[in-house]
Amino acid sequence: MFASLAAALLLSTAPASQDGPIRTAPREAQDDGPVMTAPLVETGDSLRVREAVAYANPLPRGAPEADYPLVAWCEALVNGHVALGETLEARDDLDNDIIRLGRLEATDFRAALTAAQARQSPATLTAARAAAAEATAKWTPLMAQDQAARSQAFGLFFGLPGRCEHAARRIRENITTPPATPAEVGLE
User: Fold this and answer.
1) Considering Cα of 15, then 19, then 23, then 29, what sign does the dihedral take?
2) pTM of the full predicted structure?
């Protein structure tokens, strides 16, 4: 199944490249972000394919399954990575760019959480706070390490599950229908 998903991704229409995370917020909410020099060319069908693939892949251990707590977890991981990078004394241009892009991504997640907060149950809000606290705690031991260990950990952060960006878009836009499955988008 995963081979067919990977093949479908390679064959699907790719979005125009941009200098920054994939935008899930309306453009006006990200005026301070990267300037796109090409129009967004992703079709609704290609978005459905990417979303189906993202939701078909398993999440890392400890990641919440529900969208709202997942976005809180993703935001906390990105904020922790940014905070770790900010502790580095001899940052190069790449480190600074990763920190800048991380801030943009965290801002996007925070905007999605804020937009969807009023629609969440108390239990979901509690789950989101717990998920964020758990993700934040992952960075605590690294902050106490020496400069070399912090630099290595900063460089080895592998990023977030693809589901984070889709979950942020879904909660922001109040999409309550289930995401498409690989079979529904022709991948199985």
Assistant:
1) negative
2) 0.77
